[in-house]
Amino acid sequence: MDISKIFENNRSWVENKLGNDPQYFENLAKGQSPEILYVGCSDSRVTAEQLMGLGPGDVFVHRNIANMIPNLDYSSMSVVNYAVVHLKVNHIVVCGHYYCGGVKAAMDSADLGILNPWLREIMDVYRLHKDELLAISDEDARYRRLVELNVQEQCVNAIKIEAVQRAYRERDLKIHGWVFDIKSGRLIDLEIDMQKALQGIHQIYHVD
Prior knowledge:
Layout: H1 4-20, H2 24-28, E1 36-41, H3 49-52, E2 59-64, H4 74-86, E3 91-97, H5 101-107, H6 116-128, H7 130-134, H8 139-159, H9 162-171, E4 174-181, E5 186-189, H10 194-205
Parallel strand pairs: 1-2, 1-3, 3-4
Antiparallel strand pairs: 4-5
Helix pairs in contact: 5-6
């Protein structure tokens, strides 16, 4: 790739935006008030705004390997806290995708050096749902199911966070678990029931 081409693309993009709205960038510079926090995978094939049909200013985005929200990861925790407490988003979306390299590496117990502690978080998801996953004989189907279960567990991780619990009580913040099917381009809603999830972990993780 010729990196200089990116600057040409940028100039064309600016001209196009200003042609449609001369105040486009001035309005962007005034600040942001997105309603959605999107936690997705860093995979280069998976966009955030584009797959939702949204644009700049609509979504606060955090991406990492396998769309994780580990409660000991300062980056993830800082993003969630800023989005919920300061931007006051009304929705948290955890979006995984089929054929995720991070999930596949965890499932195969691949040794990826410095990534190993991160992958162990996904292995923990495998352990929690071992009986269901090992009952799936087709490896591809098992792989896809682990992607879904990982999204589910990251939603639970979000629910554990104090700021999220308070926002849920005060303004009915909602958490959504989605999967992006790369082969079809479709978003799949896993229909995470936040109230049910909270009931299941309330005694352990509840914060007043």
